[in-house]
Predict the structure.
Amino acid sequence: MRNYDHEIVAAPILPDNRTNGQTNAVKPVAPISNHVTMRRTKFVIILISLGIFATFLLIVHIYSNSPEFNQYRILRAYQHQIDNELISVKSERRPRTILFWTSFFADKRWSLDEDTVGLDYFRDVLHCPEYHCELTNNRDFLPTVEMFDAVLFHTAEPFPLIQSVPSKRSAHQQYLFALMEPPGETKHVLSDEEGFYNLTMSYRLDSDVVWPYQFIEDIETGELVAPAIHAKWRQVPTDWNDTIIEQLWKGKSRMAAWFVSHCDTLSKREKLAEALQDHIDVDIYGKCGNFSCPRNSNACDELLDKRYKFYFSFENSLCNDYVTEKLYNAMKRNVLPVVFGGADYSRFVPPHSVIDAEKFENVAHLASYLRYVATHPAEYMRYFWWRRYYRLTYRSPFCDLCEKLHSVTFTQKTQTYLNIEKWWMANQCSFESKIKF
């Protein structure tokens, strides 16, 4: 007899009433509940929202800092930063030190009062707007030569035979090409000095530091009007009466004078004067003429004031912007200058203040005009109209150099004259004058 106490008997499978005899199988349970699915969906939505928000912030950041859309705010913010920096260092601004490596001809001091001058000299003697500078010809003024901010080389003289140039040079130093003479007087082989100079200081109006013999100042405004590439002058009056010239007129019995000692020049000015002597009386003083007068004496100046109607301010070279003391010394006297040079004189002196020989076709036309002015006192006096509105003045080029060395813009850039010879000499001078003689 079998024992069924522990035997498991399978339940019979009943027919499915919905189908034709198919089994009614049990459905499987879902692996992930609806609750978990909802949590995942919320998480994805949050991530997408955060991404959209981050993208929005990035777009706002780019917009607010992009020069294309917000340049004015950026400029104001940067300028505010610079202003704060300038204010913070103003009271303890470091002086810029400038070294004369060579002399100015025989003058080791370059016309300064001492071998070394400092802030007080720039402020009280030179009257520079920016005076935080020091000038010296002492190479041991600083511990090492490469510590100087600027080094000047006078290129109208050769480099010294001993220690021709500094043995070391730092990246921040500015080497200056300094010259008041025309290119024909340069005593350097400039093709050997490519990439040597950073700055130029000369009579040329396109120099980094313009170094003229004189400035023209507006008496009423105090503005330095000239020299300038685009000088703005007052209108010339139709008539003018100068009391001083009127008083001197009767004693001006001689036509023209010229003080000169350099007799053979590139401009051939001596040939022009000789040609003019065929038409008018020209008294030539000095080594090149038959008249004599003590050099730089008051007697010579009084001679021009009292006896002569014209003075010849003829340059030795016909070069761009080359205007020397020959003109300005005459303008200080009561005599009318006749100029001959390569400059555009409208950049240097008021209109109708000089007679420019290069404006005439030939010597005969120039001489004819000089005779006309010499016999018409009213026309002669009209050439002195400018004295009512302008005066000659001088400002040291070292003021401009000091200001440049302190300029925020300048300290953030470096420039080098890769071809100083081309800059100084190319298309600068003419060997043929416009006036024929």
